[in-house]
User: Fold these one by one.
Assistant:
Number 1:
Amino acid sequence: MKKTTVGIIGCGVAGMTAAIYLKRAGISCLLIEGQVPGGQIIDNDDIENYPGFSKISGSDLALAILKQLKELEVEILYDQVKEIKNGKTKQILCQKEIIEADKIIIATGRHPRKLEVKGEEQLRRKGISYCAICDGSLYKEKQILVVGGGNSALEAALYLSRLAKKVILLHRRENYRAESFLVERLKEKNNVICQTGEVEEFKGKDHLESVILKDKTVLSCDAAFIYIGQLPTTDIFQNLPILGSDGYIKVDSHFQTKEKGIYAIGDCIKKESYQIVIAMGEAATCALSIVRGEQNE
Ligand SMILES: Cc1cc2nc3c(=O)[nH]c(=O)nc-3n(C[C@H](O)[C@H](O)[C@H](O)COP(=O)(O)OP(=O)(O)OC[C@H]3O[C@@H](n4cnc5c(N)ncnc54)[C@H](O)[C@@H]3O)c2cc1C
């Protein structure tokens, strides 16, 4: 069994920032990541609100933070966490290993919400995707549907408009939740069509071929990118009394949950805005509170 002072679950910007603050204060920590380090930022080609850079891609930002972690000799364990146990000791049960930690920081972020319509699951990775940057290049010069009306949907539509022959942006309403500058940028693209409607079914045998809308309109498309919001990645913590009814983790002003020694930061907690610098700020506040606690023990 591996032992650490602070076990951090999730290697997104929140988890990585917490690790930097802890390690620099001389507190041992272990970052645990189930997929690819970086988290959601990997899905953003143009971050334009990260101070210090007028524009930076999510993957470049993730690589820069990972370089800093390497320089600080922060250990990253690539394993999927299945459960945490808060008994006499705190244990993080992963697929391959069990980690014993004095304290745990949960930084598991969010994942895309699904439309939950017929054909969506069967055609996933066969034309249906939730990540334009990961899969967009597979559909060069093709006809692509983007579903959604928030910032992420419009950013995806703009990104895909550089690759695709035609992008159809499908939204339930005529008004977008996205920031107005994104709407303006989209209007300048002559290969993007904005349409109102709701998806009823995705059709295709081995690959997506068309989408049927609730008003029975049929749209032919080679790919559909779904951006209709995010859900907290917190299912594995249902054994602990730390979740609200919406699945987000509830924390106090030091980002500690109801369970002493278990903290949560970043997009997995309930808050008004979900942004990189906000997640990083929470991570710094939480880590510094742990540092102060360790110094007073
Ligand atoms: C398309 C898109 C565009 C965005 N654009 C911007 C922008 O321009 N500017 C901005 O400020 N913000 C933007 N955001 C929001 C920003 O990306 C998030 O607020 C931020 O990345 C959240 O970081 P996080 O570390 O809390 O969570 P995440 O990035 O979600 O990271 C969580 C990590 O935990 C890992 N994990 C989850 N469960 C487990 C488990 N059981 N075991 C092990 N590991 C696990 C995941 O694999 C993931 O790597 C955007 C988000 C999206 C989706």
Note: The chain has two domains: 2-111+231-296, 128-226.
Number 2:
Amino acid sequence: MFALVDVNNMYVSCERVFRPALVGRPVVVLSNNDGNCIARSNEAKDLGITMAQPWFQVRHLEREAGLIALSANFELYGDMSSRMMSLVGRYAPRQEVYSIDESFLDFDGVRGRLADIGRDMRATVLRWTGLPTSVGFGPTKTLAKLANHIAKMADRKPGTYAPDLAQVCHLGEMTAAQRDTLFAATEVGSVWGIGRRMTARLNDGGIRTVSDLLRADLAMLRRQFSVVLEKTVLELKGTPCLGIDDEPPAQQQIMCSRSFGAPATDLESLTDLVSQFTARVAEKLRHQHATAGAVHVFIGTSPFRQNDRQHSPGVTQPMRRPTDDTRALIGAAVSALRGMYRPGFNYVKAGVMLVDLQPKGQQQGELDLFSSANEAEPIARSRDPSPLMATVDALNRKFGRGAIGIGSLAHQVGGGAHAGKRERRSPRYTTRLGEIPVATA
Ligand SMILES: [Mg+2]
């Protein structure tokens, strides 16, 4: 059985942990240079603010509706993310960190009532980090993701689903009839990997709900849409097609992570791995004609090696300006790694995730990296990668991945890794001594 654990409105929730006065108020978090809204509290969503909406379009709501806008504080979000991830990772033998605020857990072989375990996990994350999460269980990753969506909506909009599904929803323990009722009330666009354009095409063909999709002819879906959609339907029917660490059906975020069999203890081997992963995600980034405003790097020990001391940090390193250049991204990633690495630990996993994506050559219109909308939007192809990076990509396509790479990785340290100007940024409460919150009696 799989679970998907996801933080509700991650960036806003991180801000609220340290500024409880923001609870219950409409809050948005703005992208690089305060351009667009990249996170919205439920109250901000209720004001009609859409994902990635430019700030100037909604600015009037500051006066009219008490809207509060904050500059993105990726250093804070990255640190809160790694705290949340390491807590959640203790609950199941295998964890796949899927985005900055989501991870899949594989509960195979775990005893006990999973819904109860899910509620305990949710309460523990809330108590220890202050972050509210939603937990969905299902026999496949696609069902776990859908269960998570139902748990979130039942909590946020009472009336959409039964109240006992709020916060934690376990599709695996329901009867077929109970599931059917839920699926008939769930739009097909809520399914993992079904984006806006495919939803429109499915709707045109009379497929509006998840039930409609499950009744459709598989061969027709494969013919008219794709093998990927066919797999999605099989997963919805309970046949696993995706294991832990398998690529998601739609490439909506750019991340590369791996668990390694033999632990890595020295900085050099971790630097190699992190550099490789960064080269990999940078290539994906250029393929999508996008740039990244920050790089998130994490490493971790295994909670299941009982005699090992535990250390599972993550650091988000902002770029001076958004880039798609492998060299600058590796510089930032390695600098993040050096800052958090401690000798004497058996690290068994590492990952690199690109954050704050935006279409290349555009000041505004960031991609919505972490929403659950699963949208692979067309991206403006206004500027191509530099000739050097284009050549690197072409050679790797022709001769195989890793045919050509960036040498002397360690010399890249510090290249371009500085935060841009962010006027409304909150303090980096958890990572800078000088910005730690002060409690007064
Ligand atoms: Mg989330």
Note: The pocket of magnesium ion is lined by residues 6-7, 10, 101 (CB under 6 Å).
